[in-house]
Specification:
heterotetramer, A: 333 residues, Rossmann fold, two-stranded antiparallel ribbon, 8 strands, 12% strand, B: alpha/beta, five-stranded mixed β-sheet, 13 helices, 14 strands, globular, binds thiamine diphosphate, binds magnesium ion
Chain lengths: 333, 326, 333, 326
């Protein structure tokens, strides 16, 4: 992998942590490249939304969270799930529809759930997760914990009424919510400028007096630093914070998208800012990483993905006679 | 002691708040205003603004926040002023509350209670008067209860709160001022079974909500004519207690359903279809339905009354059913 | 009626027009006082929301509109209907539920409609009229007329997602909408500060780049001047405009409201700014009106209200067998 | 000529845009993206951004704007990507579109057409797969049509646009790629009557949407066994064409309803109830229903297929109905 040159000043984080960030982004990248393959091979079906190009966002923001925090994501959530520490195997098995999947095969790619890491999905209604995050934060506040709720959502969701109502309610009740707006400039085929009159999300936030900051979503260190600052404020009881993460989706919206709405050149321009390539390059400039080291990471990541696929392949189908389970809880309180 | 339906409901909320720190009430004007139907009057003073939360006019957000709070370990009671406004929160109810347990493969359940007023009869016209509880009963993943009696107003909430899954409580607004006796020890009641309010051999009157009392009045009038109607309060519209109403029809061989909802695709259609499927050979004649006219509710009192089920229509329909299929 | 003194500078409008404004406000006031009486007398049922105290808003804004413009109002719309020129008789008959009512008795107090004046109701879902106004404006724009759509809504509606979506869409498509926000400080029993983190509606509008201005809603001349300016901009093709009208409701929210949520003193303070009393006082200071003149107006307004009641009383009940009419149109295209 | 359902629908939209300046299309990604199911592909280039309007993600606002534009004299076609998202606009549909004519005493009608994709079978799971068209059919004031055939995909839109009142068109997303013959002169079709697709004496199969083809396949299989099923496409779910399906059952004396919606309170319940009320004495046995399992749709293919009506279930159900009540 040939790093693009980058003026490396000394890193604000240690080598180990830097390599951890790189590895996590690379895991997401390779996991999704494999997922795309498996989609063509018809092992994975339904909708598949790839996060490729946006890895620095999920990785950087999730680094700022603690285990007790709650996470709500979108249908484009493989990256968030992996960054949150959900094992690749159960995620892959979920996309296969196997009962060893993290949602027992009931959810698929758009509905990754994991109670252990407080990962509340995987919501496929644009904006639909925002009120949930407000409620999760309300629960933490009422229970007197210092946990926060982090909600990832795309810039397209900002047009939805649920965004408006959630921002106001979170600020009104001074709730610990981190609103992580992944601004990749497009909502399916609709460019931000064609859906919003105010395209600066921090100005949107001002309409609710919600603190906000915009950050380069292609720079994992910048994202992590901004997220840590934001989460600290939120955790300290200062109410919600909106973080606008400026990023770009390298792949199509989903596997059905002919991409009529944007130019190849635009995509190529953004690819020069590939969060993984640039970060790896920076580490090499800083002599914290060499090709051999990178190869090592590639190899371990590759092995993890291969294992995940093996896990999914080895998985079993839930018997059809269980179809009507999970409509209502088996147990009562 | 004699209490109103409103007081019984308020007492149920108060008890829930006293017994369980995880319980709180949120909705528009539940606090300072005292509730749009005065159900929560006094609770803000007693429990404070942390547990009696006035919300902005944001139905989607505060219902969704209720789901989130339930996921986060609380036991929220969300009040939506009337069922028409609940349509603004339907995405949250249908796409989230009803699906989370399933989509997560059983990992996350939503112990949420949503209360709302429903029904017509107060001349509130086409945007405030509908009875959509039967419509909501179409949705798997939620439970629908319709307290009609003082006992149920007092007792269903506790059971709903103890339920691990979302329960929607529909309170017919014409019932709030209704008075009745309530045993001092009255408390939680089941939300599984329909209840026979009056036994009868000639015909089964299957109903719920405010129509229960119209049906009981009709049954009394019919008794004068020697027609003994069995009156059943369905109580819970999802899941339906087939056993009880089918058992009744197996005895009476005739059924009339009284439902304040619109007719087409109503809960009464479902009951009729189930009788078709499970009691066809027991029927002496077709099951009849008395529903609201299929119009957005008109304001004018005489038109609204003509649109709603009433005692006269119940009596004459039953009379026909019994006489024609004697 | 004893005017409170007010430092009158020369009026910006002629005497005749000033008296017209005064008379319209007075008509609304007397019409509603009578309506309240008739509610107690059980002639009027359902919900009855009085506009008393806010008359300057409907009168001032409506003065800025042309016959070809479309109006969407709320359930608190007697004032808007009368200001728009709908005859008092059919409005009163509507509240009686008579078929001579402007909505044939189908709508009642919350659903006053009138095709002749393009008065699209009378919407009882808070915020529900906003998207309609956007669509009415879209129709005018696509048809190439210069008509505008004016939507009255309360400050409580600003918390609804439909407000957010409507503001963005109207600005995005540069539509001729006048958003007339009647900020009377309360949504039923909920004070604005308890429902919004940003209580300045012009700041809310900034979140959409929608032009906005706040004006004293108790001063009919200020309202009219601001509305004329706003409507002129909208009509000229500059997109939507939000006018925040700062006013106050003197009466309870509806006939069922015990008013536990505000202090008598607060209401009394606002009553000192009664839009009718102060305006009449100003006209007297300006010697454009004397007690005799005021009496004359009172008499003619009183007669109009009496006639309206007589019209309603004389009205007839639509036969119940017509119940199922108006669910679907009789005619096809 | 042979065309796909998608092409037929696109042609219908194109024709409407050509014939009437008041017609325009608006919705999410209908323009630059070409429509989430590629129905409107190419129309932006042909008609420009004024008439092919990409909207922000604001279902309530653009559906409400469609109502307003219709009130203002236009003839909007509003596309909602899928029925699940339409819940975000339900307030506008139920509280405004369905009520305006009535609340205004007949002064204002809403000539609006809303199109949306519906149905399961593509492994899109619990927030993208439901069939709520039958649920919508509960609401007075709107009309519900469900084009299943190429002819109806081509012809229903024009009729819907000519209708003075709101018409919702539900397009089952599994049909878009379906090919069929379309007469060059094909155009507007009625939206009043159900259609008999196959005559038969033994049993009536009442269905609509994608289930029509499952029912026709089942009928073919049953014919092999000597069971002649009459297959009826309801086409319009509100108002229902009782006459046609009751007429059929009066000949066959047996009925099975196939409905992709959830069972409880479904349109199939309504049809069963109407047969109960209007054809009880014609029935040789109970009317049966084949519906989707009452679960939020699971992702796994085998579970989803188990949840949906299928040919085998139709065949075996019909076999039972015919044999047991021979
Ligand atoms: C309420 C709703 N409307 C429409 C859709 C269809 N849809 C799925 S993703 C998407 C685009 C969302 O864009 P954005 O929020 O920017 O997230 P991104 O896909 O760019 O990550 C749309 C329109 C949906 N899932 N939910
Ligand atoms: C969507 C919705 N939620 C709740 C209500 C009940 N309600 C009627 S008026 C009102 C207060 C609205 O306040 P505001 O918008 O400020 O208008 P105002 O009454 O002050 O003129 C409420 C909560 C409603 N009609 N619609
Ligand atoms: Mg995006
Ligand atoms: Mg107000």
């Amino acid at each position: 992998m040939k790093p693009v040159s980058s003026r490396g000043t000394r890193l604000p984080v240690g080598r180990e942590h830097a390599l951890h960030l790189l590895r996590t982004m690379l895991l997401i990248r390779r996991f999704e490249e494999k997922s795309a393959e498996l989609y063509s091979a018809m092992k994975i079906r339904g909708f598949l939304h790839l996060y490729i190009g946006e890895e620095a966002v999920a990785v950087g923001v999730t680094e700022a969270l603690e285990p007790q925090d709650a996470v709500v994501a979108t249908y484009r959530e493989h990256g968030h799930a992996l960054a949150r520490g959900i094992a690749a195997g159960p995620i892959m098995a979920e996309m296969y529809g196997k009962q060893e999947g993290c949602s027992r095969g009931r959810g698929g790619s758009m509905h990754i759930f994991d109670a252990k890491t407080r990962f509340y999905g995987g919501n496929a209604i644009v904006g639909g997760g925002l009120p949930l995050a407000v409620g999760l934060a309300l629960a933490e506040k009422m229970r007197g914990t210092n946990a926060v709720a982090c909600c990832f959502f795309g810039e397209g969701a900002v047009a939805e009424g649920e965004f408006h109502e959630s921002m106001n309610l979170a600020q009104l009740w001074n709730l610990p919510v981190l609103f992580a707006c992944e601004n990749n400039l497009y909502a399916m085929g609709t460019a931000l400028a064609l859906s919003e009159t105010v395209t600066d999300m921090t100005r949107k936030a001002a309409g609710y007096d919600v603190r906000a900051e915009a950050v380069d979503g292609m720079d994992v260190l910048a994202v992590e630093a901004a997220a840590k600052k934001a989460v600290a404020m939120v955790r300290a009881g200062n109410g919600p914070f909106l973080l606008e993460l400026r990023t770009y989706r390298f792949r199509a919206h989903s596997m059905f998208d002919p991409e009529l709405y944007r130019k190849k050149e635009e995509v190529e321009e953004w690819k020069k800012r590939d969060p993984i390539v640039t970060f790896a390059g920076r580490l090499e400039d800083e002599e914290l990483l060499d090709d051999k080291g990178l190869q090592g990471i590639e190899t371990s990541v590759g092995a993890e993905v291969t294992e995940a696929v093996a896990f999914a392949e080895a998985g079993t189908w839930e018997p059809s006679d269980q179809l009507e389970r999970f409509v209502y809880s088996d147990r009562r309180e | 002691m004699e209490v109103t339906y409103r007081e019984a409901m308020r007492e149920a909320i108060r008890e829930a708040l006293q017994k369980d720190d995880r319980v709180f009430l949120m909705g528009e004007d539940v606090g300072r205003y005292g509730g749009c139907f005065a159900v929560s009057k006094g609770l803000l003073e007693e429990f404070g603004p942390e547990r009696i939360r006035d919300t902005p006019l944001s139905e989607a957000a505060f219902v969704g926040a209720g789901i989130g709070a339930a996921l986060g370990g609380m036991r929220p009671i969300v009040e939506i002023m009337t069922v028409n406004f609940s349509l603004l929160a339907l995405d949250q109810i249908v796409n989230n509350a009803a699906t989370y347990l399933h989509m997560s493969g059983g990992q996350f359940h939503v112990p949420l209670v949503i209360r709302m007023a429903t029904g017509g009869g107060k001349q509130l016209a086409a945007q405030h008067s509908h009875s959509l509880e039967g419509w909501y009963a179409h949705i798997p993943g939620i439970k629908i209860v319709t307290p009609a009696t003082i006992e149920d107003a007092r007792g269903m909430l506790a059971t709903a709160l103890a339920d691990p899954d979302p329960v929607l409580i529909f309170e017919n607004s014409t019932l709030y001022n209704r008075k009745g006796q309530l045993a001092p020890e009255a408390g939680a009641v089941d939300i599984e079974r329909a209840r026979v309010h009056r036994a009868g051999r000639d015909v089964s009157l299957l109903t719920y909500g405010a129509s229960l009392f119209k049906s009981l009045d009709a049954a009394a009038a019919l008794a004068e004519e020697g027609i003994e109607a069995e009156v059943i309060d369905l109580r819970t519209l999802r899941p339906l207690d087939d056993e009880t109403f089918i058992g009744s029809v197996t005895r009476t061989h005739r059924a009339v359903i009284v439902d304040e909802g619109w007719r087409s695709g109503s809960i009464s259609a479902e009951i009729s279809a189930r009788l078709m499927e499970k009691a066809f050979y027991e029927l002496d004649g077709p099951v009849e339905r008395i529903c609201s006219a299929e119009v957005p509710m008109p304001y004018a009192s005489h038109l609204e009354q003509a649109a709603l089920p009433n005692v006269e229509r119940i009596v004459s329909t039953v009379r026909n059913v019994v006489r024609t299929h004697g």
